Amino acid sequence: MHATQHATPSTERPRSAPAAKPAPPEDPREREAARIALEGTPLQRTAMAYRALRALIADPDDTKQVFYVGLLVNRGTYPTFLARFTTDDEGARLLRERPAIDRSTVDYDALRAMPASTLGGAYVRFLDANGLDPDLFQSPPGLPEVPSYIAQRMRQVHDLWHVLTGYDSDVAGEVALQAFTWGNTGMASAAAVTLAAGVRFSVTDPRIVRMAAAGYRDGRRAKFLAPIRIEDHFARELDELRAEWGIRAVR
């Protein structure tokens, strides 16, 4: 049984509002990662994923490397994830309707008018405080329609999961959220980023191992979040959603 949806039509982008910013240009390296993911040998996938992980560890702000890893290493875990996603009523609806979470569909000024204690209000404040662009997360080129949409969707909910879990956008918080994502979705890319970054950065920040372990446990215990049409819950209180979805917030 699924919880009652709380629609928030006032947060939908008005028809007369200015158009969203043009989508970022296609990344040729991401297209190549998609090609290798679909057509490459296991050795080619492993080698390219290894290079992406090394680049991410060298520059944790290079978000695109996470995208490449996601394309390259999820081949083995994706079928199980997809089965869970599509057998959920909300997941099936997402795949039928394919909503986006960006400026083309969400009125971010309306979210700014919401209390900070709501999901929508906390989400837009998180974006503003960290200088994050919700239009950054486009569907990866070169994939079939369903995995392409799911990849985009998982990218677009990432910052909302930051808000729900309470993890910061610093390195420790990002590693902990990857661990939470690993526990919640079982995706190999989240495991790879958690382990690689956790080992590397725990040398300078001993909190990371503890935070990652707790994040993984919390992800396992929480409701499977990926199929939730989370934007339907923008007007709801964070504490209410956390209790409903079994999420332990760290702050």
From TrEMBL:
Q: What Pfam families does this protein map onto? A: Coq4 (PF05019)
Domain of life, per lineage: Bacteria
Coiled coil segments of this chain: none
Q: Where is the composition biased (Polar residues)?
A: 1-11
Q: Could you tell me which InterPro entries the record lists for this protein?
A: Coq4
Q: Name one GO biological process term.
A: ubiquinone biosynthetic process
| Residue ranges, annotated region (Disordered) | 1-30
Spell out the protein name for this chain.
Answer: Ubiquinone biosynthesis protein
Organism listed in the record = Sandaracinus amylolyticus
Organism phylogeny: Bacteria, Pseudomonadati, Myxococcota, Polyangia, Polyangiales
